[in-house]
């Protein structure tokens, strides 16, 4: 049989479907009616990440052994893949119950959903305030208690040229209707792990990082955690309450950072979180969220150490076209740092 006519069998859990040589894995699954979790289909959200336990794919590498993005992975043999169980994305309605200024240019928005919104700490969702375009944000835990409740909390930076965030507190206020879509992303807390957690968060990228830390402390208060986070300017440093809570735990090391001098406190380390990570080992679980440059830096450090690394892109949006361009740059940075387009052979 010629290669052109040959088809490969893909096995996921108890399902099988066929794929043509060179066909995109996610496309083959969708065509066969097999549901693989996915969202953007352009390689940046990570929702479609699967583990290739047997077989060969090309493309979609994540920097983690045998894990690929199905929307970017081309099939070149029979495959066996595994999918981590995550909450199924859905859409629900809600309303804003509170908008609180937590630092200059940063607000904490609390939303009451019409029904409980299921997500894994560290995942993100799409928020569409009525009359405004959808934007992605990460639900997080209470900063003073590391607890989650029925209502959802988001840390949001006001972007001057943005189409949504400048209006929080004015045109978008308490009682404003919002549609919540998700959850998405693969940079979430994994239950049942004892590895050291190393987490880097810059700016409002701290939101998913704090969600992961909160979940880890709830599950295993004695787990070793290194939390490195900060902002560019002191006036936007909003996470002090959370860091104070985390530092009360004996095995949690907290390193707050500040990029721009003058520093107003000797407790703040100069630079980005990536500059102050501990020496990584292959046993570490590393998470990063925030500026693309910082995330790429951490990704490279994790790759060199052989550590498991998880990140979802986090970038402000001013327009749909601009957002896609920035996401594209983020993808290229991470690929250059953490992956190479070689066949993935499990």
Automatic annotation (TrEMBL):
Highest rank taxon of the organism: Bacteria
Record domain 2Fe-2S ferredoxin-type: where: 6-87
Domain FAD-binding FR-type: 89-190
GO terms, molecular function: 2 iron, 2 sulfur cluster binding; oxidoreductase activity
Pfam families: FAD_binding_6 (PF00970), Fer2 (PF00111), NAD_binding_1 (PF00175)
Protein's UniProt name: Ferredoxin--NAD(+) reductase
Organism of origin: Rhizobium leguminosarum bv. trifolii
Lineage: Bacteria, Pseudomonadati, Pseudomonadota, Alphaproteobacteria, Hyphomicrobiales
């Amino acid at each position: 049989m010629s290669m052109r006519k040959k088809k490969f069998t893909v096995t996921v859990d108890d399902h099988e479907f066929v794929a043509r040589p060179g066909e995109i894995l996610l496309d083959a699954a969708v065509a066969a009616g097999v549901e693989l979790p996915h969202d953007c289909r352009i390689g940046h959200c990570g929702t479609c990440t699967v583990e290739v336990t047997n077989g060969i794919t090309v493309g979609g590498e994540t920097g983690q052994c045998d894990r690929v993005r199905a929307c970017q992975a081309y099939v070149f043999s029979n495959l066996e893949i595994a999918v981590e169980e995550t909450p199924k994305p859905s859409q629900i309605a809600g309303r804003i119950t509170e908008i609180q200024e937590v630092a200059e240019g940063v607000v904490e928005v609390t939303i009451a959903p019409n029904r409980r919104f299921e997500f894994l700490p560290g995942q993100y969702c799409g928020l569409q305030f009525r009359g405004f375009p959808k934007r992605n944000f990460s639900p997080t835990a209470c900063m003073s208690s590391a607890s989650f409740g029925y209502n959802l909390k988001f840390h949001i930076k006001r972007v001057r040229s943005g189409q949504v965030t400048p209006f929080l507190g004015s045109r978008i206020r308490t009682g404003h209707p919002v549609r919540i879509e998700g959850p998405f992303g693969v940079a979430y807390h994994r239950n049942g792990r004892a590895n050291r957690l190393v987490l880097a968060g810059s700016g409002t990228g701290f939101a998913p990082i704090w969600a992961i830390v909160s979940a880890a402390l709830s599950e295993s208060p004695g787990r070793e955690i290194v939390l490195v986070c900060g902002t560019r300017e002191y006036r936007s440093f909003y996470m002090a309450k959370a860091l104070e809570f985390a530092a009360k735990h004996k095995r949690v090391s907290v390193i707050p950072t500040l990029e721009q001098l003058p520093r107003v406190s000797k407790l703040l380390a100069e630079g980005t979180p990536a500059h102050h990570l501990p020496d990584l080992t292959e046993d570490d679980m590393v998470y990063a969220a925030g500026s693309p440059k910082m995330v790429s830096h951490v990704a490279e450090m994790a790759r060199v150490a052989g550590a498991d690394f998880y990140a979802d892109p986090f970038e402000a949006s001013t327009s749909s076209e601009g957002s896609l361009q920035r996401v594209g740059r983020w993808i290229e940075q991470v690929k250059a740092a953490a992956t190479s387009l070689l066949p993935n052979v499990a």
